[in-house]
Structure formats: structure tokens, C-alpha cells
Design a protein that fits this description.
The protein has nine helices and 16 strands. It is an alpha/beta fold and about 375 residues long. A hairpin with a 5-residue loop joins strand 1 and strand 2. The chain binds zinc ion.
Length: about 375
């Protein structure tokens, strides 16, 4: 089967994150078994009761407590939603050397390349174990990969994580963290402000402190990134009930993208310190912070064998990305990780997503070369 035919099958299966990914996993499982891999499912139930499945396929070793792969090719099976009016979303369509469909570049193009690459080898002749890892729920918080890391599903020495990078090796990525901050006040008639305390004014003071924290963070530099420091953003704010009432509550969402050399909870610690400062000058100040996302970034050494191999195969210098990827979870599984895949991230997550045919085919060659070099 050609890589294009495989991609056509993959995009034909709707695997939007909100649905179960059982159908695409079943397809991948069959393909892996046919190629001589042993397969194992690592399933969990999401918060609305839907079964989500991570699939690990191994060749050259057996599943055990200490299963270890020399090289893993990692792709997420879920996609972001698509507009129902986009007729090509689940029907791969070729135009001008481009293949259009939801997931064509993020990340089914990579998965199709990986399946094609492993079908070109004789798995019985592997010198070192090879794994294929297909995850769930990447688009909604890397949940599948986090689950695999949490249960320590297997150990991996080197991994190539599929994401659309136009085939540039990416050896570092920023993390991603979120906090919800609820500032409380005391409601009162706005004609008599001394009778209450405005939650909006309190939140504004706290946000000014966050602005200063953002400035402070610029001095902890990591020159591998653009911008070369942790950035933060207050992207949502909500507060008050009426224009003539002192607001009783004001909440805002704080997001930050930590550089991998910084602990992802640093901003949370700085926020706590800022709240403590506010309480010193305003003894009545009350505020609650909840944070359920603290994803660290990842960084693989410049001189890693995987980085140098992929640099020489692609002819492109390894770079970094400012968004979160499963590279961090692969690092937790013991791996030196590089993110690489066909297609451009700017084409992902929108109607008209596509992968260039040439890059898709080139990706098969790159992955074949990596398999030959690490596993034979
Ligand atoms: Zn993706």
C-alpha cells in the first residue's frame, strides 16, 4: 500500500478528540500486526466516560515490565474538530501536489509515513527493538501521552514525535501551564465605595504584578527559543454584575509557556508571592488559585545521535517550538526526543489543512533511515 493510500484510510476515520478513537486504533492495530509487531492497548476512560486508547506496537522484543525500545515513532490519533461544510475533511483530496483533509498534516501524515516505513523492513531481522506509539487526546492536553508516562508503559531510548514541522527536526519545546484565579471583593452600592471592596480593582492590581513578573521572567533566557524566555498571558477575565455595584467577584485565566530549563510551577510560586504582597497592603484581600495544567517542556541535547542523524538526513538544522508537544512525555519515558513531521503547523487546525505529497513521501525515507540506523 502506498503512503497516500494509507493516509486516505486514516483520514477516512473520524477521530476528533471528543469521540472514542477505537475505530482508528483498530485499523492501526491490524496494520501493525500484519507488519509483524506485537501490540498492546493502554486504555483509560475520559471525564465524560468515553474510552480512549493508546496503542503500543513492539518488534524485536516482548512486552514486559521492563520493555525497552531503541527507537519509537510516536503519533497522536486524534484531531481537532472540523467544519461540517468542509466536504474534504474525511475524504483525502489531491490538488497541486497537496493532500487535503482533517488530520492530513496534524498528524495522520506522519502516522501514514511511519506505517509505510515499517512495512519496508523485515522485523525479524531487527537488531534492536522498534516501537510505534499511537496516542489519544493529544489535542486536548496531551492526555494519552501523559497516561503512558504516568504508568511507565515502556522505556524508550530515542523517539521521533510526529507533528507538522515541515520536516525540520525540533529538539526543544516550551511547556504549557494554566491557572484559574478567582479574586473576591465585597459588593456595595457604587455611590458608597467605602462600604465594600471591588474585586475588579483587586484583580487589576494583581494583574499589574503579573505584568511585572512577566518582565522579570525575561532575564531567565534560553536562546534556543523565540521569544527566548517564559511568556505569560491573561487571556480571559470576567467580573462584576452591574455598573453601579462594586464587584463581588472577578476571575481570570492565566496561561504561561515555560522554557524547559525552568520548573513549570515557577510562575505559580511567583503568583503566590504576589498574592501575599497584596494581602500585606489589603488585609481583606481574598483570592483562590487553581491550576490543573503544568506541562513541562523538553530539550534534547544538540549533540544527541538522534539530532545529528535527523539534521544530516533532512539537511535542516534542529530548532525549537513555542508550543507543547508529546516530546515532554517521551522524555519522561527515558527518551531523547525529536519532533518532526510532514506539513506545516500553520496549515493545521483550520479548514483546508493539507500535507504536501513531496514531504509525505520524503518523511517515509527519513523514518526508514532512522530505523535502519538505530535498529539494524
Ligand atoms: Zn498535533
Amino acid at each position: 500500500m502506498t503512503v497516500q493510500q494509507t493516509l486516505s484510510h486514516l483520514v477516512g476515520i473520524n477521530s476528533v478528540s471528543s469521540r472514542s478513537n477505537a475505530e482508528i486504533i483498530e485499523y492501526l492495530e491490524q496494520r501493525c500486526v500484519r507488519s509483524g509487531f506485537a501490540v498492546k492497548r493502554f486504555s483509560y476512560t475520559d471525564e465524560i466516560g468515553i474510552e480512549k486508547i493508546n496503542l503500543v506496537a513492539l518488534a524485536g522484543t516482548e512486552f514486559s515490565e521492563r520493555a525497552e525500545a531503541e527507537l519509537a515513532l510516536v503519533g497522536h490519533t486524534d484531531t481537532v474538530p472540523y467544519d461540517v461544510n468542509w466536504s474534504e475533511a474525511t475524504k483525502l483530496t489531491e490538488r497541486d501536489g497537496k493532500l487535503f483533509a482533517r488530520g492530513a498534516c496534524d498528524t495522520k501524515g506522519f502516522i501514514a509515513s511511519a506505517l509505510t516505513a515499517v512495512e519496508l523492513i523485515d522485523v525479524n531481522r531487527l537488531q534492536r527493538p522498534l516501537a510505534l506509539i499511537f496516542t489519544a487526546d493529544e489535542e486536548i492536553g496531551l492526555r494519552g501521552a501523559k497516561y503512558l508516562a504516568q504508568i511507565n508503559a515502556l522505556r524508550v531510548r530515542y523517539s521521533i514525535v510526529g507533528e507538522p514541522t515541515s520536516l525540520q527536526p525540533i529538539r526543544a519545546g516550551k511547556g504549557y501551564a494554566l491557572a484559574e484565579v478567582v479574586v473576591r471583593g465585597r459588593e456595595a452600592h457604587s455611590a458608597y465605595p467605602a462600604l465594600g471592596a471591588s474585586a475588579i480593582v483587586r484583580a487589576a492590581r494583581l494583574i499589574s504584578r503579573l505584568e511585572a513578573i512577566g518582565e522579570e521572567l525575561k532575564s531567565d533566557r534560553h536562546d534556543g527559543f523565540d521569544p527566548p524566555f517564559t511568556t505569560l498571558n491573561v487571556g480571559l477575565i470576567k467580573g462584576g454584575t452591574a455598573k453601579n455595584v462594586l464587584a463581588g467577584e472577578c476571575s481570570f485565566a492565566l496561561e504561561w509557556r515555560p522554557i524547559p530549563t525552568q520548573k513549570p510551577t515557577l510562575v505559580l510560586d511567583l503568583l503566590d508571592a504576589a498574592i501575599a504582597e497584596e494581602m500585606k497592603s489589603d488585609s481583606d484581600f481574598t483570592c483562590e488559585v487553581s491550576s490543573d495544567r503544568n506541562d513541562s517542556g523538553f530539550e534534547t541535547r544538540e549533540d544527541s545521535t538522534l539530532v545529528t542523524l535527523l539534521e544530516s538526513t533532512t539537511g535542516k538544522k534542529a530548532g525549537s517550538v513555542a508550543f507543547g508537544t508529546e516530546g515532554a512525555q517521551m522524555t519522561r519515558l527515558g527518551s531523547e526526543a525529536v519532533v518532526l513531521g510532514p506539513g506545516d503547523i500553520r496549515q493545521a487546525h483550520r479548514t483546508g489543512e493539507f500535507v504536501p505529497v513531496e514531504e509525505l513521501e520524503r518523511c517515509v525515507e527519513i523514518l526508514s533511515e532512522a530505523i535502519n540506523s538505530f535498529c539494524f
